[in-house]
Amino acid sequence: KEHDNAAYINSKEELTEFLQSVDERMKEREKHYFECLKNNKELPVYEKIVFVIDGYSRFQQNSDTKNQEMIASFMKQYSHLGFSVIAAGNANEFSKGFDGFTNELKQIRQGLILMKKSDQNLFTLPFTRNEKEVQPGFGYYVVNGKERLIQIPLY
Length: 155
Description:
The chain is built from five helices and seven strands. By secondary structure, it is of the alpha+beta class. A three-stranded antiparallel beta sheet has the order 5-6-7, with no helix packed on it. It has a two-stranded antiparallel ribbon with strand order 1-2. Helix 3 packs parallel to helix 5. The longest helix has 27 residues, at about 10-40. The two termini are about 25 Å apart.
């Protein structure tokens, strides 16, 4: 199914096919990028390819190690070429995993947390004495160990 340039992936086979097409596209971008570097041309800004995981535990159950390692590799090699990952799940799903992909996600120093800072261990944040509960519609945007309270639209 496709809608507004979004591909909905529902099987391991579809994921494998999608990742192979992304790999080809990234290799083309990388070749072009290095040609621009070599010839002292302005570096291109590429259209984003955003891989969104809505439900991290479900994703882990429905994908295999090879695909997860491929995504982790894309995160390391191709972020400057427009590849990004957004993964949603509860804190335990991220903190208990020790596979390569989960470890790569943990290296990202940017995210949203929708709980008290003291109730999570993904990000190292300063201790706040008598921290209040996070109310529905609010959360923390974290970048490089600094958090900012934000309001999230409710609907």
